[in-house]
From TrEMBL:
Its EC number is 1.11.1.6. Its cofactor is heme. Residues 3-25 have a biased composition (Polar residues). Residues 28-416 form the Catalase core domain. This is Catalase. One of its GO terms (molecular function) is catalase activity. It catalyses: 2 H2O2 = O2 + 2 H2O. The chain holds residues 41 to 578 of 740 of the full protein. It comes from Arthrobacter koreensis. The keyword Ion transport does not apply. Keywords: Heme, Hydrogen peroxide, Iron, Metal-binding, Oxidoreductase, Peroxidase. Belongs to the catalase family. HPII subfamily. Decomposes hydrogen peroxide into water and oxygen; serves to protect cells from the toxic effects of hydrogen peroxide.
Length: 538
């Protein structure tokens, strides 16, 4: 056993307690009493009934009976690894976050995932991939909970239960297990046209990554950063894999699903074990923090939009290397709890309505998934910064809190110096102005354009990549039972690109509808070609 580190208040921090019962000298009960026999239950004679008094039998079976916890409601299937993030200092001018200062090194834990499949589903399905990073910084834990696709299906978190209900297996037959080929999925995205942009990325080669090691990652939302002078900027986070972006082709993906459903997790673990440590550069697109939170006509609060990289290039601010596999899948990969609200001084959220809802959702689901309010004390979730909170008691409380006065100010336990108002390097909410406005449920009009960016994306692809998109739509829609859903999705495709629509329609044996909107014929910009195509390898 390695010793646990315990902060002065009794909250465990840092290194987890490990145990290796399989190879220990003695096997014991959970209470530490040595066992003589773990293979036979206690009976009334060799052929007699088993005795209720057999404590070891009951303890062993009872614990086994409770080994499972609920899988994540989304992103249930994942694989993870430890590593280190080294900053190059390029972000020092825009954020005071200490872990982004030049040469700062920060331990990280990254979990990659599919979104819709269950914990036991296959790896190489067509789906979005999660790319969630926990930075254990000296100023507290920062979680960058992103995906491998830079936009999201919906613009408002209130639609999240709906899009997930549509994407998960049908409630009657519990099929399909993957994202592919649902009536409900296509019903949703054809009725909610803001989903068309994310969907065309899914239908492209980005939906079937070759490896977690060759995926980009995106924070998706715009975040607000603040520097030491209190000046703010808006940023979007990007992870760029040093190995370049690579995908499978659909036939490969299908064969691999059958032959090795663990392909992605095996690839990640094998590469790390072999010392081929995967690396990503972390970059930011930086925008001025203007009152309207727009950039070049793009609403920065709309998570269904990208900002083309020719308009705002990605500036590299550090590099992450994954160099250590997990020791125990359950303890680490399964119990890790990410949260977009885990922020550090220098990084704050914006009013993106999708992000705002996420700030509520993660902790709420983790209360159930991880059995109560103390999951921050689970080793993988423990901050590496000292913890001194006033959260007390509850299920699975590990800390032995000293003192009698868990409230501030108090005159019994000494109180905290921050009450004197000194700068303690604390998180300060950016005093961003909040519009004096009526309460409304409507979206701003700047959220209304659902087609120009999917169109730019499609037209930015090479002919081979475009063929893959056409084949993917044709295959997936071809699996729908309801013809009216196919027809409605073809209408959305007509508004994206007439040739795309015509070819998918021909593949489905249906007439191609005319666009209901004026389709812009402009050629894509070079930056959009980069965004849509393969990222160049250095
Ligand atoms: C889990 C990303 C939107 C609710 C996750 C995970 C990722 C992720 C990567 C897996 C975390 C892990 O590995 O443990 C995103 C991105 C989003 C998004 C990039 C949009 C840009 C939302 C929204 C909601 C939501 C809008 C709810 C309103 C959840 C929940 C989990 C989850 C409940 C499971 C968390 C757990 O059980 O620990 N998300 N998500 N997500 N997400 Fe999201």
């Amino acid at each position: 056993d390695s010793p646990e580190t315990v902060s002065p208040t009794g909250v465990p921090t840092g290194a987890p307690k490990t145990s290796n019962a399989q190879s220990g000298r003695y096997l014991t009960t959970a209470q530490g009493a040595r066992l003589r026999d773990t293979d036979h239950s206690l009976k009334a004679g060799p052929r007699g009934p088993v005795l209720l008094q057999d404590h070891h039998l009951r303890e062993k079976i009872t614990h086994f009976d409770h080994e499972r916890i609920p899988e994540r409601v989304v992103h249930a299937r994942g694989a993870a690894a430890h590593g280190v993030f080294v900053a190059n200092g390029a972000a020092e001018g825009i954020t005071r976050a200490g872990f982004l200062a030049r040469d700062a090194q920060t331990p990280v834990f990254v979990r990659f995932s599919t979104v819709l499949g269950s914990r036991g589903s296959a790896d190489t399905v067509r789906d979005t991939r999660g790319f969630a990073t926990k930075f254990y910084t000296d100023e507290g834990t920062f979680d960058l909970v992103g995906n491998n696709i830079p936009v999201f299906f919906i613009q408002d978190a209130i639609k999240f239960p709906d899009v997930i209900h549509a994407g998960k297996p049908h409630p009657d037959r519990e099929i399909p297990q993957a994202q592919s080929a649902h009536d409900t999925f296509w019903d949703f995205v054809s009725l909610h046209t803001e989903a068309q942009h994310h969907t065309i990325w899914n239908m492209s080669d980005r939906g079937i990554p070759r490896s977690y090691r060759t995926m980009e990652g995106f924070g998706v939302h715009t975040f607000r950063v603040v520097n030491a002078k209190g000046e703010t900027s808006l940023v979007k986070f990007h992870w760029k894999p040093r190995l370049g972006v690579h995908s499978l082709v659909w036939e490969e993906a299908q064969i691999i699903n059958g032959m090795d459903p663990d392909y992605h997790r095996r690839d990640l673990a094998d590469a790390i074990e072999a010392g081929a440590y995967p690396e990503w550069d972390l970059g930011v697109q930086v925008f001025p923090d203007t009152e309207d939170e727009m950039f070049e006509g793009i609403d920065l609060l709309d998570p269904t939009k990208i900002v083309p990289e020719e308009l705002a290039p990605v500036q590299v601010i550090g590099t992450m290397t994954l160099n250590r596999n997990v020791t125990n899948f359950f303890a680490e990969t399964e119990q890790v709890a990410f949260h977009p609200g885990h922020l550090v001084p220098g990084i704050d959220v914006t009013n993106d309505p999708l992000l705002q809802g996420r700030l509520f959702s993660y902790i709420d689901t983790q209360l159930t998934r991880l059995g109560g309010p103390n999951f921050a004390q689970i080793p993988i979730n423990r901050p590496h910064a000292p913890v001194n909170d006033m959260l007390r008691d509850g299920f699975h409380q590990d800390a032995v809190h000293s003192g009698v006065a868990p409230y501030q100010p108090n005159s019994l336990d000494g109180g905290c110096p921050f009450l004197a108002g000194a700068d303690m390097g604390a998180f300060i909410d950016v005093p961003a102005p909040v519009a004096k406005s009526r309460k409304v449920r409507e979206n701003p009009a700047t959220f209304d354009d659902h087609y120009s960016q999917p169109r730019q994306f499609f037209r930015s692809l090479t002919p081979v990549e475009q063929d893959h998109v056409i084949q993917a739509y044709t295959f997936e829609l071809g699996k729908c039972y309801e013809e009216n859903i196919k027809v409605r999705q073809l209408q959305a495709l007509a508004n994206i690109d007439e040739r795309l629509c015509a070819e998918v329609a021909a593949g489905l044996g249906l007439p191609a509808p005319a666009p209901t909107l004026k389709v812009d014929d402009a050629e894509p910009s070079p930056a959009l070609q980069q965004v849509g195509g393969t990222w160049p390898v250095d």
